[in-house]
Amino acid sequence: MDTSILIQTFLAVFVLADAIGNIPVVLALTKGMMPEDRNRVIDKASVVAIAVLLIFAFGGRYILSYLEISMASLRVAGGLLLLLIALQMLRGELDTPITEEGRDVAITPLALPLLAGPGTLTTVMLFMSKTQNPHLEVVLGIVGAMFISWLILRLANQIDKLIGVEGAVIVTQLLGFLLAALAVEIGSTGIKELFLR
Which parts pass through the membrane (predicted)? Predict the structure, then answer.
């Protein structure tokens, strides 16, 4: 087992899911719900996010093949996308989703795009292509990151009281900095493959 891919996948998915930064959004989406109902929403959102990430991780390569997109191009595009998301996190410019009555908030916006957004989908597909057979490492990384995110969201009320608004902002910016570094790494690898092969 390639533990480096496992750790990188875990960190990337966890950072992109940004469970701590999304606590205020989760609390707003589930405002007025009983704790049991809020927990059910979080459970459902986590399961949906894991399913979408796994489907994209395993099926993404076939989509690329059909569209004749190289992995190097995807790495550059994915790196740029992650960098833009990281910059939004650092500047506090991430959009807060608008809730609509009658919508299942567990699926959208909680699972998609908050937990499993386009950046996360691109990332898991990139990690799946890193070696000949990284499937177990990527799957474990995805499940592990989403499990920790699920635990954090399950403790949303307590964490919100503990860290406060300023604490959530600080954590989000720290995660954004790590994501920016990862984005540069992924993008530079793609550039090398495109121009130095």
Answer: 44-64, 71-90, 110-129, 136-156, 162-184
Half-sphere exposure of 34 (CA within 13 A, CB side): 2
Helix residue ranges, H only, 92-155: 118-128, 135-154
Interior CA angle at 183 toward 159 and 63, to 5°? Answer: 100
pLDDT of 194 higher than 70:
yes
Token pair recorded at residue 29: 């989406």
Residue 26 and residue 110 in contact, taking contact as beta carbons nearer than 8 Å: yes
For 104-150, how does the pLDDT look when each residue is reduced to its tens digit (9 = 90+)?
788 877 888 789 887 888 889 888 877 667 689 999 999 999 999 99
144 CB contacts (<8 Å, ≥6 apart)?
10
